[in-house]
DNA sequence: ATCCAGGCTGAGG
DNA sequence: CCTCAGCATGGA
């Protein structure tokens, strides 16, 4: 028997099943920001290898002085490494305007900050939202493929564009930083375990709320 | 050996 | 607005 659930009910169930995730899984805010780029279209294990090559306590100042080829070589395990080296450098040049101070970026208005991030080469909507949510203290919903798949399965009417989906969920969910941080982490963890690109998983804890196993993505 | 993973850009309908 | 190739590694 399938029963509909709301966004907050979904959040509560995920939290109940998986517990607090404490994302983003990085040692520092700066590593979080770099890894947001490194993790584009790759798994976290490869990102961890790349982060390891960069060194535990690399600073933005050190990275921006590094030759692009050297940076690329270090982040090689994360895949798409030449492009990602360019992306990281582009992002660093933007970050330099704030003296590499995360606290300074946090003072920027949320909408303004999002536009600035999106203007950086290599930073798209998901990466920008992740940076804002986990390092710059701006609450928001990350409308990634895991979210699309899960919300689709529970019968949520998903708007076509990334931003429309994001805005709709934000309308239905508390504007709370920690709740959004947990929500995204829970959606990804749940997605990895029970909401893959295959038919419905019989042991999925949300099985009673899933209307279909067909994916859109 | 395929297939997949916390995407984005740029070109072309 | 939408689609699609290209970008690349490491693990299952």
Provide a short characterization of the protein structure.
With 217 residues, this protein is mainly alpha-helical. 57% of the residues lie in helices and 0% in strands.
- Based on CA atoms alone, the radius of gyration comes out at 18 Å
CATH superfamily of the largest domain: Hypothetical protein, domain 2
Architecture of the largest domain in CATH?
Orthogonal Bundle
Based on helices, strands and strand pairing, what is the structural class?
Answer: mainly alpha
Specify the overall morphology: globular
Helix content: 55-70%
SSE arrangement, N to C: HHHHHHHHHHHH
Alpha-carbon distance between the two ends: 25 Å
β-strand number:
0
The CATH C-level name of the largest domain is Mainly Alpha
Counting structural domains, the number is: 2
CATH T-level fold name of the largest domain: Endonuclease III, domain 1
DSSP strand content: under 5%
